[in-house]
User: Which sequence fits this backbone?
């Protein structure tokens, strides 16, 4: 992070070097949710197990490094990882809205943060898939070095985060 010229970074894990400070940001517990449109599920067999996704069209993200995160599921202590076929593949972030629209249009199964899919799930535009197996994980942390003078914009942001009700 420092070598790249950044004052802070975001991680989804508390494990940091000893000279780093971690401040929780966002929801403390998050889940990846799977969903598809009713129209898509009417044309295809509804997945009953994560391995069933290998026979489905899956709308996935791919990082600029070329890595595509595998989809992980958990139930009763059993963790299942699948690397389903991807059609289409998009970079995470701003393309997420496009992936959600593609899922609503019936192009395949999508896996994204539950909070990002909640509006479409709430309206019924998308329906949950394999919900009992959705994985939970800890929310993100803002991290920065403890021994350096903190730039004013970063100090203002950290103060803002700490003043939010969910941070208390």
Assistant:
């Amino acid at each position: 992070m420092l070598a790249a010229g950044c004052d802070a970074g975001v991680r989804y894990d508390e494990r940091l070097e000893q000279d780093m400070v971690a401040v929780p940001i966002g929801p403390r517990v998050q889940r990846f949710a799977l969903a598809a449109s009713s129209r898509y599920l009417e044309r295809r067999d509804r997945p009953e197990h994560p391995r069933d996704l290998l026979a489905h069209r899956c709308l996935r993200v791919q990082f600029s490094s070329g890595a595509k995160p595998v989809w992980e599921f958990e139930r009763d202590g059993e963790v299942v990882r699948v690397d389903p076929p991807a059609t289409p593949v998009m970079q995470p972030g701003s393309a997420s809205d496009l992936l959600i629209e593609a899922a609503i249009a019936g192009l395949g199964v999508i896996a994204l943060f539950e909070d990002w899919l909640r509006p479409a799930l709430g309206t019924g535009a998308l329906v949950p898939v394999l919900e009992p197996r959705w994985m939970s994980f800890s929310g993100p942390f803002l991290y920065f070095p403890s021994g350096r003078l903190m730039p004013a914009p970063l100090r203002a942001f950290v103060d803002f985060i700490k003043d939010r009700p969910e941070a208390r």
